[in-house]
Specification:
12 helices; 32% strand; alpha+beta; Rossmann fold; eight-stranded mixed beta sheet; 705 residues; protease
């Protein structure tokens, strides 16, 4: 039995119970939670090995645990499992010699048994086989790694206490703080936290490790590489950052650095560090933009990076690519006039072109732009992919192929091979352990016309058996962001779980969604409750006009910005029977004052004391008296992007008005719900709430609640 067959058998074991075996893993929450999940991709220098990380449930079913799997780039052999550490492995990257580096919290076999909980460390799996060996560790853990493609020099990112010159001093300071029972943090600049964790007192530093010794490992003299701090002045609140790239020749490190932008704002610029001397100079510093995602050319002489213009009260951001000469810092824009937002750029194998990703018309496509402007399109970017959403793009060093993870609402992420030049590709998946053979319904694209005549694109999931004689109830699902779009599979928002229970699910891309042009974003800028709302209603109208949809049984739901829209919908219409709102914004003034990046949102909405207009017009809490629809409120206490106060205030406002409502509260989850048990309860509660109010069934409280 192959490793792939064994994993499939393992994931299907829970469905093999009796004659009531469901037709898909989406029909039972436990089966859905147990599905393998692929993430990340690494290609060996010779192009013969492709490695991804596959997350599955651990033996106790309490957490997802990742392992590294090898996929055949030629698509001839089944995937095979490479690692089986009890704590999991992730972030694979190859050395020039073919060794596979990865991070893992597996314990150091040479450490004392009372050494405390292991932290993420860097391990190496030899190219010629054998056991993985520990190569780099630090008491606080390794947060990131980059490898020079030609020289093999290694750079790592690790959190370090202020004033600690080396690992020993860092550990001593941490121990003293712990022994003294000190958890307090002193902040002297904004911000103070990020997504789900507090910032400080330790901050990321970038360390030069150099070439890893071939025989490195516990118990040998070479098992402790020398750490050289390339960012000794990194300080609070954000340190050196973790957006790091190493030139192929090992001479340079490029990194993004956050710098102050006004009294309480931040922006990022691009720095270049010469490894031999540690000398740092500014490569790109634009006071009106964030610069990030640098990648080196094969000859180490140029850098490509992204530029995101700063938002203003009048204008949303715009994105472009910059080509920068390392020696002179001369900069040239690569995508002028390109009405999409490029991201994740990297050079072609011969350095004559740049590949990048961008949302485009409800897809997340791969593009290629020639550096000399001599393509058949006159230098304009060429879209290489048709359907689907792509990530983790890998360029074969011989120029023969591209590899990526492809997903869509018809497939979770799976590895594919692409031609480096051909447009309009829709490649088949390479053999992998994450392919799903059956979905409980069909996927179609649906267009609507907004009030101003603009096209509004949506994805519509229809359950099996839905037709004019048996129309399906409809759930409107609003995406987050708001500057994103529905185009790729997300394990947090899987419409097929609802489709397996007979619901149709509408996934619209209203104003503010990216991938439809700058003017489409402008339509909703600073006016969240206006055009985005009317676009959503136009999409619902178009769906309800279909014979397969039962317009008398509908619900709306969303998370983050989608949660904001769910709240706004509740105040504007009673056309829906139920509304589910997750991690949602309710009181805009309160949100902007408490979120982890207030300066970003205030640029769009203005200072609430001097420019209150947009808060007054767009804050759902001001219209709470209009709510008539039952609501399920969901929030995690560790959510620092949309703090828990938003959920608490919404819940109270609903309760005191007598609105039928429930509050699903997660004390230890953040903006997302990341543990298997809580994820299962999330779906169970949502489904029970919808069943009660949309289907008219009796409320069934989830057993573990």
């Amino acid at each position: 039995m192959s490793d792939t067959e064994a994993l499939v058998e393992q994931s299907e074991a829970s469905v093999e119970q009796s004659d009531d075996t469901p037709p898909s893993p989406f029909h039972r929450i436990a089966d859905f939670i147990a599905l393998p999940r692929l993430g990340g991709l690494a290609l060996s220098p010779d192009g013969s090995r492709l490695v991804t990380s596959v997350a599955t449930l651990d033996a106790e079913g309490k957490k997802w645990q990742s392992a590294l799997w090898e996929v055949d780039p030629a698509g001839q052999r089944d995937a095979r499992r490479l690692t089986r550490g009890a704590s999991g492995e992730s972030a694979p990257v190859f050395t020039p010699g073919g060794d596979l580096l990865f991070t893992s919290t597996r314990p150091d076999p040479g450490a004392a048994k009372d050494g405390g909980d292991p932290k993420p460390a860097l391990w190496a799996l030899p190219a010629d086989g054998g056991e993985a060996r520990l190569v780099v560790q630090r008491s606080a853990g390794v947060a990131g790694v980059a490898v020079a493609a030609d020289s093999g020099d290694v750079v790592v990112v690790a959190s370090t206490m202020p004033g600690a010159p080396d690992a020993e001093a860092d550990e001593e300071l941490r121990t003293r703080r712990k022994d003294a029972g000190v958890s307090a943090l002193l902040h002297e600049s904004y911000p103070v936290r990020y997504w789900d964790h507090d910032l400080g007192p330790a901050v990321p530093h970038v360390y030069w490790i150099g070439q890893l010794p071939a025989e490195a490992g516990p118990g040998t003299s070479s098992s402790t590489p020398q750490w050289r701090d390339l960012t000794p002045d990194a300080g609070p609140p954000l340190g050196s950052g973790s957006d790091v790239a190493v030139s192929p020749d090992g001479r340079w490190v490029a990194r993004s650095e956050d710098v102050p932008d006004g009294p309480a704002g931040r922006r990022s610029r691009l720095l270049l560090v010469e490894v031999a001397t540690g000398e740092t100079r500014v490569l790109v510093d634009d006071p009106q933009a964030d610069v990030s995602s640098a990648r080196f050319s094969p000859d180490s002489g140029r850098v490509v990076c992204t530029r995101e213009s700063a938002t203003t009260y009048a204008e949303p951001p715009d994105h472009t690519l910059l080509l920068v000469d390392v020696a002179t810092a001369e900069t040239r824009e690569l995508t002028p006039g390109f009405d999409r937002w490029p991201s994740a750029p990297q050079f072609s194998a011969d350095g004559t072109a740049v590949y990048f990703l961008a949302d485009d018309d409800g897809r997340h496509a791969v593009f290629r732009v020639a550096l000399d402007g001599t393509t058949q399109d006159g230098g304009a970017p060429v879209r290489l992919t048709d359907q689907g959403a792509y990530s983790d793009l890998q360029v074969a060093r011989d120029g023969s192929a591209l590899y990526a993870l492809r997903s869509g609402y018809d497939t979770p992420p799976v590895p594919v091979r692409l031609d480096p030049h051909a447009p309009g590709q829709d490649p088949a998946a390479l053999p992998n352990p994450g392919t799903i053979s059956h979905l409980p319904g069909t996927l179609r694209e649906l267009d609507a016309t907004a009030a101003d005549g603009t096209r509004v694109q949506s994805w519509l999931v229809l359950p099996e058996g839905a037709d004019a004689a048996n129309p399906a109830p409809l759930v409107l699902w609003v995406h987050g962001g708001p500057l994103m779009s529905w185009n790729s599979w997300s394990w947090r928002w899987v419409p097929w779980v609802l489709a397996a229970r007979g619901y149709a699910v509408l996934l619209p891309n209203p104003a503010l969604s990216q991938g439809f042009g700058q003017d489409f974003v402008r339509r909703g800028w600073g006016e969240w409750g206006d055009t985005p709302y009317t676009d959503l209603m136009a999409a619902v109208d178009a769906a309800e006009a279909l014979p397969e949809i039962d317009q008398t049984r509908t619900a709306a739901m969303g998370g983050s910005f989608g949660g904001y829209m769910a709240n706004w919908i509740a105040t504007q219409t009673d056309r829906f029977r139920a509304i589910v709102t997750h991690a949602s914004l309710w009181h805009l003034d309160g949100f902007i004052g408490a979120t982890d990046a207030a300066y970003y949102w205030e640029k769009e909405f203005g200072d609430p004391l001097t420019e209150p207009k947009r808060y007054e017009q767009n804050s759902p809490h001001r219209y709470a008296d209009a709510i008539r629809t039952p609501m399920l409120v969901i929030h995690g206490d560790k959510d620092y992007r949309v703090p828990i106060g938003e959920g608490l205030r919404l819940w109270y406002d609903l309760q005191k008005r007598g609105i039928p409502s429930k509050f699903l509260y997660f004390p230890d989850e953040n903006h997302w719900v990341l543990t298997p048990g809580n994820a299962a309860v999330w779906y169970e509660t949502v489904l029970a709430f919808l069943a009660e109010h949309v289907l008219g069934e009796e409320w069934r409280r989830p057993e573990l609640l």
